[in-house]
Amino acid sequence: MKRADVYEKFDAIGSLVFATVDKGVPQTRIAHLFAFDDEGLYFRTMVTKAFYKQLNDTELVSICGMYPTTTIAHDDEGMPSFEPGYTIRATGEVREIPLEALKAKAQGNEMFMLGVKDIEKYPAMTTFCLHRAWGEVFDFDFEKENRPHKLERTRFCFGGQQVPFQGMRITDVCMGCGACLERCSFTAIGREGDRCVIDPSRCDVCGDCYTVCPVDAVEIVIQDTLVRGTAGH
Ligand code: SF4
Ligand code: SF4
Q1: pLDDT in tens, 99-129
Q2: Which CATH class is domain 3-161?
Q3: Where is the 4Fe-4S ferredoxin-type domain (predicted)?
Q4: What phi and psi, each to the nearest 5 degrees, are found at residue 99?
Q5: Is the CB of 208 under 6 A from ligand 2?
Q6: Residue nearest to atom 6 of ligand 1 (CA)
């Protein structure tokens, strides 16, 4: 996915959760992205807010949202159900964009033009660019209304960041009994030779295969989510 595709997914949601860390304590608030270009994705805050201080202190942010609704319905048994849609999240490094640089971007670009207008109206406002990040779109259809599988997970990265692997993996210990394959309601497991393998794009990391495997062949993999870099390309 390109930055434009990522922006479009976030923009369709509108209001997003922005998470930062303040001396080890997680903090969240609702904000929105207003533009994108080859440098990254852009949002605004005020220099007077704790959000601003946290962004400058850590130079990190994590953003997420859900489309088309965040409403949770319930089925006849009272269990939660969700109409088909997606969640999207991105985590990475931010830098503040000076007003003059924003004005330069605004030449002929309506998205940035509106950002400049807003700052001129509210002078305490400033702009940040998420310039190096990774994330994923978690496209769900849990009742399989529109396709034969529940999940399509698409991971993306930009600005020099790599996508870390997080999820379940079947090791060489697998003896091919097929118990996990039968159990997986996400149809994320297939056979490869005499053993089973997991398709990460279909896997929900629900853990059913992990609990059912008789020989502990399923491992949980959590790679470091962000390796800091200096590249802004
Ligand atoms: S349940 Fe375990 S041993 Fe059996 S196929 Fe799955 S991973 Fe392999
Ligand atoms: S973690 Fe859940 S969704 Fe993923 S492969 Fe195992 S059973 Fe399937």
Answers
A1: 999 999 999 899 999 999 999 999 999 999 9
A2: mainly beta
A3: 165-189, 194-223
A4: -60, -40
A5: yes
A6: 180
Convert the pLDDT of each residue in 37-68 to its tens digit: 999 999 999 999 999 999 999 999 999 999 99
Q: What tokens were used for 226?
A: 């962000």
H helices, E strands: number in the chain: 6, 14
Instruction: Please check whether residue 163 is in contact with residue 132, taking contact to mean a CB–CB distance below 8 angstroms.
Output: no
Query: Which pTM value belongs to this model?
Result: 0.92
Which CATH class name applies to 164-225? alpha beta
CA of 170 to the centre of ligand 1 (A): 8
- As annotated, the residues of the chain forming the CATH 2.30.110.10 domain(s) are 3-161
Domain span(s) for CATH 3.30.70.20 in the chain: 164-225
Q: Which residue's CA lies nearest to atom 8 of ligand 1?
A: 174
- Closest C-alpha to ligand 2, atom 6: 209
Tell me how far apart the alpha carbons of residues 48 and 186 are, in angstroms, rounded to a whole number.
46
